[in-house]
Design brief:
The protein is mainly β. It contains two helices and ten strands, in the order ββαβββββαβββ. The protein has helices spanning 21-33, 128-135, and strands spanning 2-6, 9-15, 39-45, 49-56, 82-85, 98-101, 120-126, 139-142, 145-149, 155-160. Strand 8 and strand 9 form a beta hairpin. Its EC number is 5.2.1.8.
């Protein structure tokens, strides 16, 4: 189990190493290295998803490891409270950023709108109320990015229990 301690409460996460081995290991490696400590949920789109794993509170992007293969064809669904790899328009561009679905988002499932979709690799097991609180925060523009929480949602520590 992975625990994300945030300034809004704790989120407990499990990863699915059987169905998404590359993504699960990638995420776990970032947790073990301390990479997520001090990052923020930098993109919140109410009733869609909350995204984190790449920026600090000043909206400076952290350097990441290599991009990974898109495993969206694993049969897992972008259901509410599932974790998926964030990426650019390039299908195999995911690195450290992830998102938690705050509603069922079937249109993100393989094959998606681009023939690939977004890889689900885990799920929230505790802290649903925290995810729901983050989903409700007010957002605006900051450092050229939209949908940024007006009051930073900070991951103070992420670790494996």
């Amino acid at each position: 189990m992975i625990i994300f301690e945030t300034n809004m409460g704790d989120i407990h996460i499990t990863v699915d190493a059987e169905n998404a081995p590359i993504s699960a290991k990638n995420f776990t490696d970032y947790v073990e290295s301390g990479f997520f400590d001090g990052t923020i949920f930098h993109r919140v789109i109410k009733n869609f998803m909350i995204q984190g794993g790449g920026f600090n509170e000043d909206m400076a992007q952290k350097p990441t490891n290599a991009e990974i293969e898109n495993e969206a064809k694993n049969g897992l669904k972008n259901n509410k409270y599932s974790l998926s790899m964030a990426r650019t328009a390039a299908p195999h561009s995911a690195s450290s950023q992830f998102f938690i679905n705050t509603k069922d988002n079937a249109f993100l499932d393989f094959p998606g709108q681009d023939g690939w979709g977004y890889c689900v690799f885990g799920e929230v097991t505790e802290g649903f109320d925290v995810v729901d609180k983050i989903n409700e925060v007010s957002t605006g523009n900051k450092a050229g990015h939209g949908d940024v929480p007006n009051d930073a949602v900070i991951v103070t520590k992420a670790y494996i229990k």
